[in-house]
Design brief:
Strand content: 15-25%
Largest sheet: 9 strands, mixed
Number of helices: 15
Helix content: 40-55%
Length: about 350
């Protein structure tokens, strides 16, 4: 069967007839500034680690990482060789210092309208007419999405409730997005509790504003750039110890995400590379492969993992840039069709253009 533009557009529009669970990755942040990407982080670590490694063990372990990168491995794969706990803490510090500095640059720009988070218009479309929660997950440490939601007056909750220092309490968070409405019932008005439309955001690898204080994981925006020495950042770095850290904090960071995946039957992936085994867990893969749940991947750069996945799933669509660097056009694929559809004059891999062309706004 030949995939035509008309078929592709109709299928992509129909995908949004029901609200999906959304997973967005570093591609959404890199569309605003490439310093949020793994290559920029790799450069920063490569320049800073030799200056800050103190012990012989740390230096030897980092040399191993450097050798793996030299052989052609990506940063995350190379960091699988890290075993030293002190080195992991140093990686967390350098990573968070670097990303928090870039995040600070964009916090005011987004809130004042001088910059726009690339996926915002798409989220606005999904929120329109929504009843209840749009469930959204991200491994990103930055707060670009949160700034954008604030700017657009879109209510969102992250599981943390309180004032300056917020503690994890999903039940209390959900109370913040409920209201009472007068509903006419048999010629009388009755007050009924309703859940407001909002985003339920799962920061599954922690965030620049999450920290461990004693036995509690807290959220505190005042500590994003310069946290006190007595608190520990809760961000899950690439590498093999990621799984150990996730196991220790699984209920806090991944528990609600797991539940959301299980209750959804439609998934939207934005700027998502599928390189994280904790997010690409068995439950999500069963939904896409075995249960044939509808899925849509919108990303500028595809990769081998994505290509393998779309060939294993009956109802998974991919919208991405043409692999030729000189070609700005769009490729669309679904395995039910004989070949890729090339849209030479479209940039549907850009979420702004996708929203305008496919959803009309």
């Amino acid at each position: 069967m030949i995939l035509t533009k008309e078929i592709a557009y109709k299928s992509l529009q129909d995908f949004f007839n029901e609200k999906p669970m959304v997973l967005f990755g570093t591609g959404t942040s890199c569309a605003l500034d490439k310093r949020f990407g793994m290559l920029a982080l790799q450069d920063r670590l490569s320049s800073e680690m030799p200056k800050q490694c103190i012990s012989t063990t740390e230096k030897e372990n980092w040399d191993t990482v450097t050798n793996e990168i030299t052989k052609g491995k990506d940063l995350e794969s190379a960091l699988n060789t890290v075993q030293d706990e002190k080195l992991i803490k140093l990686i967390i510090k350098i990573t968070s210092d670097f990303i928090s500095a870039v995040d600070k640059e964009y916090s005011l720009k987004i809130l004042t309208g001088d910059a726009e988070w690339p996926a915002l218009n798409l989220f606005k479309k999904m929120i329109d007419g929504l009843q209840g929660a749009l469930h959204v997950a991200t491994p990103n440490y930055d707060l670009l999405a949160e700034y954008a939601f604030e700017k657009a007056h879109i209510p969102y909750i992250t599981g943390f409730s309180g004032g300056v220092c917020r503690y994890l309490d999903w039940e209390q968070c959900e109370r913040r997005v409920t209201c009472w409405q007068n509903i006419p019932i048999k010629r009388t008005m009755k007050k009924v509790e309703k859940t407001m439309k909002h985003i339920q955001l799962y920061k599954v690898h922690g965030s620049l504003n999450t920290f461990k204080v004693g036995n509690d994981i807290v959220e505190n925006n005042a500590w994003i750039v310069d946290p006190p020495d007595i608190v520990e950042r809760v961000i899950i770095t690439p590498g093999i110890l990621k799984h150990k850290q996730l196991h220790q904090n699984r209920d806090d960071l991944l528990g609600m995400y797991d539940k959301a995946v299980k209750k959804h039957c439609r998934f939207l992936f934005i700027g998502f590379g599928f390189n994280d085994s904790q997010l690409n867990n068995d439950s999500l893969m069963r939904k896409l492969k075995e249960q044939k749940c509808p899925g849509l991947i919108i990303t500028k750069e595809s990769n081998e993992r994505i290509v393998n996945l779309i060939h294993e799933c009956d109802n998974l669509w991919l919208v991405c840039k043409h692999p030729d660097a000189l070609n700005k056009g769009t490729q669309v694929f679904n395995r039910k069709f004989d070949d890729w559809l090339l849209l030479a004059d479209k940039k549907l891999w850009d979420t702004g253009e996708f929203t305008k062309d496919i959803l009309g706004g």
